[in-house]
């Protein structure tokens, strides 16, 4: 006979397993200054344009999709999914981490108002720090869908009710 105590333990174990895979903490891997001495200097038409995530992959390895970028700090709880980008002839400004402008569609930072998270331009000095975080992958590379978790919860609730009414 299934008891409520047994079902409670099963529910607690399932919750721990699923929550640990759903909420794996991002890991801080490093930072770069968009303007200062970190990026290449724009002086001709050969400097590539990069999103913040692409710069993180370039500097720290892996795929750009495995990174979250922040302009706040190296604290994983403060990730704002924003990045400092340099706009040609305009200066450094705040945009989304996957944002860039490549107006000529040639992948090159050029005079058409392009933006990049990895270039020195406009003589604005430093202080535009982007912080990169590796997003942990779950075992097997999959995360249970919310619908799956809902069905699991409904199933456990049904078993609990059944055990409660059959015990009477």
Please explain how this structure is put together.
This protein is an alpha+beta fold. The chain has one domain (24-151). The chain is built from three helices and six strands; from the N terminus they run αβαβββββα. The protein has helices at residues 4-22, 52-60, 146-166; strands at residues 27-33, 67-70, 82-87, 91-96, 115-116, 129-134. The strands form two sheets. Strands 1-6-2 form a three-stranded antiparallel sheet. Strands 4-3-5 form a three-stranded antiparallel sheet, with no helix packed on it. α1 runs antiparallel to α3. It is elongated, with a radius of gyration of 24 Å. It starts with a helix and ends with a helix. 24% of the residues are buried.
Write the layout of secondary structure elements.
Blueprint: H1 4-22, E1 27-33, H2 52-60, E2 67-70, E3 82-87, E4 91-96, E5 115-116, E6 129-134, H3 146-166
Antiparallel strand pairs: 1-6, 2-6, 3-4, 3-5
Helix pairs in contact: 1-3
């Amino acid at each position: 006979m299934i008891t409520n105590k047994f079902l409670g333990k099963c529910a607690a174990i399932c919750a721990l397993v699923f929550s640990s895979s759903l909420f794996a903490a991002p890991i801080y891997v490093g930072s770069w200054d968009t303007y200062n001495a970190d990026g290449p200097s724009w002086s001709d038409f050969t400097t590539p344009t990069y999103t913040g995530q692409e710069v993180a992959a370039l500097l720290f390895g892996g795929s750009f999709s495995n990174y979250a970028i922040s302009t706040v700090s190296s604290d994983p709880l403060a990730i704002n999914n924003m990045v400092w980008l340099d706009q040609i002839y305009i200066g450094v400004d705040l945009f989304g981490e996957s944002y860039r402008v490549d107006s000529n569609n040639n992948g090159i930072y050029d005079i058409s108002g392009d933006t990049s998270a990895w270039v020195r331009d406009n003589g604005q000095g430093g202080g535009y720090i982007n912080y990169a975080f590796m997003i942990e992958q779950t075992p097997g590379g999959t995360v249970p869908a919310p619908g799956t978790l809902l069905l699991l919860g409904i199933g456990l609730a049904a078993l609990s009710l059944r055990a409660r009414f059959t015990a009477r």
